[in-house]
Design goal:
Length: about 230
C-alpha cells in the first residue's frame, strides 16, 4: 500500500459540497445514544452529539451550504471510494483508491461504559390512541409498579391507523437526577458515578422505570413495552 495525500478537514474549506449524495451512499456509526452518517466520499454530513434528538452539529445532508460537515478525503478529483464494515461490528471503513495509492479512514463511536451513561434515557413505542384498550393490571403488576387503585393501564391492539402494530411513534423515558444537598456534598468530595447513583436512588430520583410507569398511566405507552425496554438492559 503506497501513501496518498489526504485533504485537510472540510472545516478549513470555504465552499459547500457540490451535490447531495443519495441516502444509500452512507454508512452509519453509533454509540446507542446517537449516530453519525458517513458518506462514501468520506464526509460526515449528519451528526447530533450525545442523543438522537439533540441539535445537529453536522447537517449538510439537509443543507449543503449551511448544514456543516466534516470530511477527510483525497486531494483532487481522480479517485473513487468504497465503504464496508469490519465483519460483525459497527466499525466503518471508507477506502479511497487513486492512481497514487490507497487510503482508509476508519470510523466508529465508542460506547459509554459507566452506569450513569447507560441509564439516562431510553425510547419506547407510543401506544396507538386510536385502538389502545384499557386493561386491569394483575395484583403483581400493581405492587411492582406502585400503582394506585384508580390508575389505568393500556394494551396495544392494532388498527388501520397504526398498520395493525398497536403502536405509532416513540416517546422518551428519562431519569431525573435532582441535585439534593447530600448529592452536592458527595460531588464536592469527588464521589464516583456508582456512589452518586446509589445516593440519588435513595433520595427520590425518578429512574427510567418510574418514569415509564408514569407514562403508561398517562396513556402514552404500555407496561409491556416499558418492561421489555428496561429488562433488555439488564
Ligand atoms: Zn391503532
Amino acid at each position: 500500500m503506497r501513501p496518498m495525500t489526504l485533504a485537510e478537514p472540510a472545516a478549513a474549506e470555504t465552499s459547500g459540497r457540490s451535490a447531495y449524495p443519495p441516502i444509500a451512499e452512507h454508512g452509519i456509526i453509533g454509540d446507542l445514544h446517537s449516530v453519525a452518517l458517513v458518506a462514501t466520499d468520506g464526509t460526515i454530513d449528519w451528526y447530533c452529539p450525545q442523543q438522537f434528538d439533540a441539535p445537529s452539529v453536522f447537517g449538510a445532508i439537509l443543507d449543503k451550504d449551511k448544514g456543516g460537515y466534516y470530511r477527510i478525503a483525497p486531494v483532487g478529483e481522480d479517485w473513487t471510494s468504497t465503504q464496508f464494515y469490519f465483519p460483525d461490528t459497527n466499525v466503518l471503513v471508507t477506502r479511497f483508491l487513486s492512481p497514487s495509492g490507497v487510503a482508509e479512514v476508519i470510523g466508529f463511536m465508542p460506547i459509554g461504559s459507566t452506569r450513569a451513561e447507560q441509564h439516562r434515557h431510553r425510547l419506547v413505542r407510543r401506544v396507538c390512541k386510536a385502538c389502545r384498550r384499557v386493561f386491569q393490571p394483575s395484583a403483581e403488576i400493581q405492587v411492582e409498579c406502585n400503582l394506585l387503585p384508580h390508575h389505568q393501564l393500556y394494551q396495544a391492539v392494532g388498527c388501520a391507523q397504526c398498520g395493525k402494530l398497536g403502536y405509532r411513534g416513540r416517546i422518551g423515558l428519562q431519569e431525573v437526577f435532582a441535585i439534593t444537598a447530600p448529592i452536592r456534598e458527595a460531588l464536592q468530595a469527588g464521589a464516583s458515578d456508582d456512589d452518586l447513583y446509589t445516593l440519588a436512588a435513595h433520595s427520590g430520583m425518578i429512574n427510567l422505570f418510574t418514569d415509564g410507569v408514569a407514562k403508561c398511566v398517562a396513556g402514552y405507552s404500555t407496561i409491556e413495552e416499558v418492561y421489555k425496554t428496561i429488562l433488555a438492559d439488564s
